[in-house]
Each structure stands twice: as structure tokens, then as C-alpha cells.
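Entry 14. Structure prediction run on the chain below.
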Amino acid sequence: MKLAMIGLGKMGINMARRLMQGNHEVIAYNRSKAPVEEIAAEGAVAASSLKQVVQMLSAPRIVWLMLPAGKPVEDTISQLKELLSSEDIVIDGGNSYYKDDLRRYQSLKETGIRYMDVGVSGGVWGLKIGYCMMMGGDKDVFKYLEPIFQTLAPREGYLYCGKIGAGHFVKMVHNGIEYGLMQAYGEGFEILDASEYAETFDYGKIAHLWNQGSVIRSWLLELAEDAFSKSAELSEIKGYVADSGEGRWTVQQAIDTGVPAEVITLSLMRRFRSRQQDPFTDRVLAALRREFGGHAVVSKKE
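Output returned:
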């Protein structure tokens, strides 16, 4: 099939490569020129504007967006709405909020443009292994696009999840679970590192061991093994952990529906904490202990 890939970051450019390996024709566009030139050298057709993208496609046009959630997606869809025709298809494969999908679907529907949300997981390994994908939208659009999904995904690696927004909703919860798993692994290795046995531990070997049939084996542990093999104590990395937004949305969804999601919520709070230096909360705690019990405090001058 012929389609455009808009957004050639680490995910987008590798997805374009996998599509070309599957004999799909890819029109490539990105705001900065370097990745367009890179993928064009490998066989993609370069476009210099969204208008040119649309001109290069044949009806029904397929435009796949791999852009950061929020304004980049909004601006691009707004421009595409003026350029595309009825029955053309816009796919948002980024980490957008599912409620944004509901609004975009209705807006594009006014001009007959079809819209599908696709949650994509796989990171930088997706080119080789394939991308796990979760789809939301009209079933007939999903069926039409299925050859593309089959190329991008590993065997049994994609699923039609339901009406519009369902794909990004499932991906949102997927990322929330990811937060909790990563936090548990981090805490476990810290307990190991704080123990009297730490000096004999090889964390890469422990991660490898746990992946040999244990109940906590996972791809994340494989990645931990890789990380520890590069740096036994991860000493060159600062413990600053960002969040993409989907963890927040998962926690908000839990609040809205009254679901007790303690682990995911606390893992999100821990990420916030990782970005603080000498947080005000802790200064208040230290001051209160000093005031009610005369406990010593550590001065910043020390």
C-alpha cells in the first residue's frame, strides 16, 4: 500500500523502514530535513510540505502521524483537514489522549475524512522485532488498513480494540502498567544495592538469572541486563525520570472511575520526586521534628 509517514523521530523513521521492507510505498515528511533525506536515501519518497504529501498520494490517501501528543498533532490535523478529501484516512500513532481522539474524529467526519487512533509500543527495537499496536476507530477502516498493521507488527501483535479512542485508551493503561513495573524493578535493585551483600552482586547477571524461567522475567529485565552490562552501577546517569503524560492520564482515569490504582499512582509520584532537589516537603518535615521533639536538623551550611 502507499501511505505517508509524518514525523520521523526514532519511532517514525524505523516504522517507515519496516513498511518499506514489507514493500509498502512510503512518502516521508518531517519539519526538519535531515531525517527526510536519511530515509529518502533508503527508498522513501521525500516530501517538503504537507501539501506535497497530499499531492503525492492517491485516493483514498493514508496519512500516518507519529508526532508528540498535543499541539504538534493538533496543528498537523488542522492543516490536513484543509488538504485531504472525503474517504481519506488520518492515523494518529503517537501517545495522544483518548479524549482528544473523540473530538478529532467528529471534526474530521464533518468533511468525510476517516480517522483511526493507534497506540504503538516497541520503542527503538520495533524495527527488528515489530510493533505492538492497539487500534480504535471504525471497523471498516481497520480492515482496509490491516495489510499495513500486519507489516508493522510481529505475529499476533496488533488488535482492533473497538470504537474511536479505544486504541489510545488501551495504550494509556499499558503505559501506566509500565510505570509500575519499572518502579518495582528499580526498588528491588536498590534494596540489593543497599544490602551487606552488594559488593559481590553483579546486577546484570542477576537480571539475566531472573529471566531464566522466574515469575518476574520480562523484556524490561532484558533491558536492565543490557543497561548494567554498560555500567555496573549506572553511575553516569542522573536519577531524573520524566513522564510522557500517559501515566498521569491513567491515574486520572482511575480517579474518575473509582478504581484503586495504588501502585501506578505511587510510581507516577516517584517520578515527580526524582526531579526535585532538596524538596520543600522534606524541609517542612525536618522543621516540624525539630519544633515538636527538638530533633537535630542538617544545615545547608554543613
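The two ends are 66 Å apart (CA to CA).
Filed with the rest of this week's runs.
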